[in-house]
Specification:
About 75% of the residues lie in helices and about 0% in strands. It has about 220 residues and is mainly α. The chain folds into two domains: about 1-65; about 85-224, no CATH class. Helix 6 crosses helix 7 (about 130-145) and helix 8 crosses helix 10. The two termini are about 35 Å apart. The mean pLDDT is about 85.
């Protein structure tokens, strides 16, 4: 009876997660239907929770952590796809794939004037202004790469070393910034890099705290 209840729970968790995913895709793809950033985050969180519950129960049932590992990899891939979309293609932030093909001398000069290579110049400007746009920009840049501080050490053992982690995350952020610079998708700002790196580093250090590390390892059936 207990095994039957576990199997039902596994199926129900995956089914609810799939329903939530289909609803999310409908809202994203249907014409004249959309959702704000908060609604998008809540729905993605619900999908992740149901996916985790199903994978955790299945791992326990099969006495192997493979379902949880597959779940983690899939969530990481979805996160990377979302990150690339937000940093390179999100029209809500004034980015368009067509920018690369329709630029002219005037638009290029305007784009180049927005490039910032002076550390803390933009951050200080945001702090002195501290309006809604400034707050969203600072918080958004801190949060954007923060999950890397969790995913990288959890999925790749070598990045549990601080030096390897910093080199890896710095390479990822720089790659995206360089693509933005070359393709005119977004703009290059050294302060974005600083905030992105800081956000990832803070989560990485949080993950290193013994009690938190033990809790996460327990959640994903990892050995200490």
């Amino acid at each position: 009876m207990k095994k039957i209840m576990i199997i039902i729970s596994i199926i129900l968790s995956y089914l609810l997660g799939l329903i939530a995913l289909c609803y999310y895709l409908y809202l994203e793809l249907a014409p004249k239907v959309g959702m704000d950033e908060m609604g998008r985050m809540i729905l993605l969180f619900i999908i992740a929770i149901f996916g985790y519950l199903g994978s955790f129960l299945l791992s326990k049932h099969l006495l192997t952590r493979k379902p949880l590992k597959i779940y983690l990899i899939l969530i990481f891939i979805l996160y990377i796809m979302s990150l690339l979309y937000l940093t390179l293609f999100a029209s809500d932030y004034g980015r368009s794939i067509y920018s690369f093909f329709i630029w002219n001398e005037e638009s290029l000069n305007i784009y180049l004037s927005k490039i910032n290579i002076i550390p803390f110049k933009t951050i200080i400007l945001y702090i002195t202004r501290m309006d809604r746009v400034s707050f969203i920009n600072i918080l958004g840049n801190l949060i954007a790469f923060a999950p890397m501080g969790f995913f990288l050490p959890l999925l790749f053992k070598k990045t549990r070393n601080l030096k390897n982690f910093l080199l890896t995350i710095l390479s990822i952020i720089l790659s995206i910034e360089i693509v933005q610079l070359i393709t005119l998708l977004g703009s290059f700002d050294i302060d974005d890099l600083i905030l992105n790196l800081l956000g990832a580093f803070l989560i990485y250090k949080l993950y290193q705290i013994k009690k938190i590390n033990h809790f996460i390892n327990k959640m994903f059936l990892l050995e200490n």
